């Protein structure tokens, strides 16, 4: 006979998680159930294969990169905390959250979302999107539908437009500037139900 | 010195004897005899109505109790954690670009932008949090608690009355219903094997088919009572006829018993060993079923030939097939395998919908084995379901097997109130085919390449 509170009590450091990510206890409980459902074999953590069982992710052209975002620092496992922290990037912005000057940047702020998207391009984490990295992304998004020349011309044009300091690569600042007008708060957020 | 039975022991033996006799008489009168003739006293429906009222009371009590103690209720029946936008790839990407670009909106805006990745990224994250397919392979979540611990999310010690009720439920289910049902199950299966073997000794002819029909129906009806299944059949005028193929959505092995207790079918399947094998071999003596050896199953031509041979012979019973190929949790209908739709026989679709309040009928084969599953079924309250016989369908001119299969699937989903999914039920175990990923890539490239060609032309 499980009780509703026993689920939440299984999660260590729940208070800190709520504070950091801004999810409500109800959301965290749902995410925990999802985590458990994905965790085949009840290991207590997720490995890349567990993500492979999400069928809709397998049809997403950048599915592998998204899975990679969970295992960013060369780790091979994701525990529940890291799982929730990554998903917290997609929370909508809190309009009435008072900005304290010494508090760390909230996970779902515009800058954090941009940084998350930047890392999807910048796979070697050197702070720049090189021409090769851009080509790689284009290749996974378009695969066999376009020729190599078309891919290269798209990549060249994109770098030309965004690159301001002429190093033939896109740094995070250049990335940010070129997406200044995009409504990132809306496009990189999911509508969470209550 | 021997053991002298005391008068007390005598009394005990007498009591036991009497209770067994009473037990079996009741069993015979109320269950087996009606099963033979296909009538019902209506006792089960009365119990069903009473149970529903009790469940609703139990749920209200839990909610009230939780509010009083200020506990958080886990509401499993909300539609997931996020609201999925039903917009298409093209619309979304156009919107992202429109907001970001101050340029003139013409063909020039149809080129790759760094922000395009946002769409795929967000969709990927949303599918990690909640996707349409994975949740079909685990049991459906209930709105009200049905006094079974296995479907319980919120129960704590809320009130004495609730606990007493739950305890009473356990007593009734395990102490009274379960032994009763197990007895009936053994009776039903035993009779089936013995009687079909006997009938198999008769020469082929009208007498044999008549008897075999009656025997099959009777034994399946006993099995139906062994599960306390309360079935409502709708539109019986559309029942499958000889020479046709009956297709239905698949939730559990019990589907077979439910359909076969209302009509005679030729079953299709693989020969198993053990008890199942014995039953299968006995059944085929009385009337022709289609059993395949394990090695023959892979040979699609052989399978198709045997099915079409059977369907062409109008004296043979309609074939019963579950085209999904695997058990789905009864909230949706997944892709139908096209094999049975290529044969060209008349298809009689049937929709089966279980009421999840009384028992979780879905067989999660990765979680429980068959015996475990049957025991769980027999220790639930009842199996309540509705069966709709849909009007027969034929393959139309210019329609291929896949389109025909999808048309039948849509009709079944609509009737049963299930979600119609394009996904393959085989995804329970297998990986997604790359063709799906290519679809997404095609859609996206159409947006870009079209623009590229315009540029190179101008």
Plain-language structure description:
The complex is a heterodimer of chains A (194) and B (458). Chain A has helices spanning 4-9, 14-21, 25-38, 48-52, 55-58, 63-70, 80-87, 110-121, 131-142, 148-162, 172-178, 184-187, and strands spanning 128-129, 170-171, 191-192. Chain A has 194 residues and is mainly α. A two-stranded antiparallel sheet of chain A has the order 1-2. Chain A is globular and about 55 Å long. Chain B has a domain at 191-428: Glycerol-3-phosphate (1)-acyltransferase, CATH 3.40.1130. Chain B is 51% helix and 9% strand. In chain B, strand 4 (266-270), helix 8 (274-286) and strand 5 (290-292) form a beta-alpha-beta unit. The longest helix of chain B is centred in the middle third of the chain and has 41 residues, at 160-200. Chain B starts with 6 loop residues before the first helix and ends with a helix.
Helix content of chain B: 40-55%
Structural class, judged by helices and strands of chain B?
alpha/beta
Shape of chain A: globular
Distance between the termini of chain A: 25 Å
Strand order of the largest sheet of chain A: 1-2
Query: Order of strands across the biggest sheet of chain B?
Result: 2-9-8-3-6-4-5
Number of helices of chain A: 12
The end-to-end distance of chain B, rounded to whole angstroms, is: 117 Å
In CATH terms, what is the architecture of one domain in chain B? 3-Layer(aba) Sandwich
Report the CATH C-level class of one domain in chain B.
Answer: Alpha Beta
> Which outline of chain B best applies?
flat
Radius of gyration of chain B: 28 Å
Strand count, sense and closure of the main sheet of chain B? 7 strands, mixed
The tally of strands of chain B reads 10
> How confident overall, as mean pLDDT of chain A?
80
Indicate the low-confidence ranges of chain A by residue numbers.
none
Q: Strand share of the residues of chain B?
A: 5-15%
Q: Oligomeric form of this entry? A: heterodimer
Radius of gyration of chain A: 19 Å
Order of helices and strands of chain A: HHHHHHHHEHHEHHE
Average pLDDT reading of chain B: 77
């Amino acid at each position: 006979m499980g009780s509703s509170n026993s689920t939440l009590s299984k999660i260590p450091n729940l208070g800190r998680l709520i504070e950091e990510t801004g999810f409500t206890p109800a959301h965290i409980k749902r995410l925990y159930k999802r985590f458990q459902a994905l965790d085949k074999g009840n290991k207590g953590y997720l490995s890349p294969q567990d993500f492979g069982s999400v069928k809709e992710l397998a049809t997403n052209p950048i599915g592998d990169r998204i899975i990679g975002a969970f295992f960013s620092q060369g780790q091979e496992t994701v525990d529940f905390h890291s799982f929730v922290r990554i998903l917290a990037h997609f929370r909508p912005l809190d309009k009435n959250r008072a900005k304290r000057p010494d508090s760390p940047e909230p996970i779902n702020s515009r800058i954090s979302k941009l940084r998350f998207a930047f890392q999807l391009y910048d796979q070697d984490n050197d702070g720049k999107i090189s021409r090769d990295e851009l080509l790689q992304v284009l290749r996974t998004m378009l695969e066999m539908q376009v020729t190599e020349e078309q891919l290269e011309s798209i990549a060249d044009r994109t770098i030309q437009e965004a690159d301001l300091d002429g190093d033939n690569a896109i740094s995070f600042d250049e990335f940010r500037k070129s997406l200044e007008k995009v409504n990132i708060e809306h496009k990189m957020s999911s509508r969470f139900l209550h | 010195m021997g053991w002298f039975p005391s008068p007390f022991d005598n009394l005990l033996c007498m009591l036991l004897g009497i209770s067994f006799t009473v037990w079996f008489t009741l069993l015979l009168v109320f269950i087996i005899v009606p099963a033979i003739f296909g009538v019902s006293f209506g006792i089960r429906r009365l119990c069903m109505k009473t149970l529903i009222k009790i469940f609703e009371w139990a749920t209200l009590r839990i909610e009230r109790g939780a509010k009083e103690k200020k506990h958080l209720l886990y509401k499993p029946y909300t539609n997931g954690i996020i609201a999925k936008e039903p917009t298409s790839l093209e619309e979304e990407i156009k919107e992202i670009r429109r907001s970001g670009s101050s340029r003139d909106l013409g063909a020039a805006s149809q080129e790759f932008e760094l922000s395009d990745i946002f769409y795929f990224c967000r969709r990927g994250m949303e599918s990690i949090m909640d996707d349409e397919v994975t949740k079909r392979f685990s049991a459906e979540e209930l709105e009200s608690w049905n006094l079974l611990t296995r479907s319980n999310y919120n129960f704590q010690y809320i009130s004495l009355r609730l606990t007493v009720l739950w305890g009473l439920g356990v007593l009734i289910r395990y102490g009274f219903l379960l032994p009763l049902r197990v007895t009936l199950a053994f009776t039903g299966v035993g009779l089936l094997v013995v009687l079909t073997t006997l009938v198999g000794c008769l020469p082929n002819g009208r007498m044999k088919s008549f008897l075999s029909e009656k025997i099959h129906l009777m034994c399946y009806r006993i099995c139906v009572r062994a599960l306390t299944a309360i079935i409502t059949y709708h539109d019986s005028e559309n029942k499958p006829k000889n020479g046709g193929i009956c297709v239905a959505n698949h939730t559990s092995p019990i589907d077979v018993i439910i359909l076969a207790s209302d009509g005679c079918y030729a079953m299709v399947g693989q020969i198993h060993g053990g008890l199942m094998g014995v039953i299968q071999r006995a059944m085929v003596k009385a009337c022709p079923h289609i059993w395949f050896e394990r090695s023959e199953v892979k040979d699609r031509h052989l399978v198709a030939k045997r099915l079409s041979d059977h369907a062409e012979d109008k004296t043979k019973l309609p074939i019963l097939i579950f085209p999904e190929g695997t058990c789905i949790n009864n909230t949706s209908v997944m892709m139908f395998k096209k094999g049975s739709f290529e044969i060209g026989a008349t298809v009689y679709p049937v929709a089966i919908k279980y009421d999840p309040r009384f028992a979780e009928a879905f067989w999660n084969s990765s979680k429980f084995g068959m015996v475990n599953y049957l025991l769980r079924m027999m220790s639930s309250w009842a199996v309540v379901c509705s069966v709709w016989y849909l009007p027969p369908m034929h393959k139309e001119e210019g329609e291929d097997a896949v389109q025909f299969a999808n048309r039948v699937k849509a009709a079944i989903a609509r009737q049963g109130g299930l979600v119609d999914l394009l996904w393959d039920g085989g995804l329970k175990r297998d990986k997604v085919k790359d063709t799906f990923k290519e679809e997404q890539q095609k859609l996206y490239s159409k947006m870009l390449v079209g623009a590229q060609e315009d540029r190179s032309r101008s």
